[in-house]
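User: Good morning. I'm curious how zinc ion would be positioned relative to this chain. Could you predict the structure with it bound?
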Amino acid sequence: MKHLIAPSILAADFANIQRDIEMINRSEADWIHVDIMDGVFVPNISFGFPVLAAVNKLTNKPLDVHLMIVDPDRYLTAFKDYGAANITVHYEACTHLHRTIQKIKELGCTAGVAVNPHTPIAHLHDIIEEIDLVCVMSVNPGFGGQKFIESTYRRIQELKLLAQGRKDALWIEIDGGVNQLNALPLLKAGANVLVTGNTVFSAENQEKTIFDLKNISTSTMTI
Ligand code: DX5
Ligand code: ZN
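Assistant: Good morning! Here's the predicted structure, ligand included:
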């Protein structure tokens, strides 16, 4: 199965959001990654429902909504209604994670759990059968354009081991500091979704950058 590319609109030009979404529409991007930050769970505030609604109106690509917010349960139905296809909550923000996951699935969305760089992958042991996607944070959440954390490779391998007994495939999504240099090693380690913000939006040819990330040759991969 070919890996997926999810450009993060946090790095888009908000004064030209329609232009940037149309670029993603033309590109080989699979999902649009939407970072929701509340200024409490993370030290930054991004955007909320009106922006999500606008993005949803402009695209048919699935919206991959990454909730960096406390108490996400309060808003799950709203995010679904505003167009989320995937809803990812943070392990660190959910007291009753199992209940939260069930709710996301009841809504008909892909259920994801994101883990901060300091959270042991092993903490997903008792939830791994229930979820569709794990978002391995390769930066500390809150900002785009940060430096990739190298321990991510080991964490992907740990996650693959943990997921071995699953019936269905697991989306292993990497979020933060993904670029042309680490993309192939990440895929080799077992990632199958790459989120990419600044690498795409600061590129001279954004559409080609997405194309190149999508078409990285993994044919010589030895896993
Ligand atoms: C970080 C966000 C990321 C961010 C990625 O808190 O969750 O999705 O937008 O941006 P880059 O690729 O620039 O690190
Ligand atoms: Zn994100």
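The mean pLDDT is 96. The two ends are 14 Å apart (CA to CA).
Let me know if you'd like a different ligand tried.
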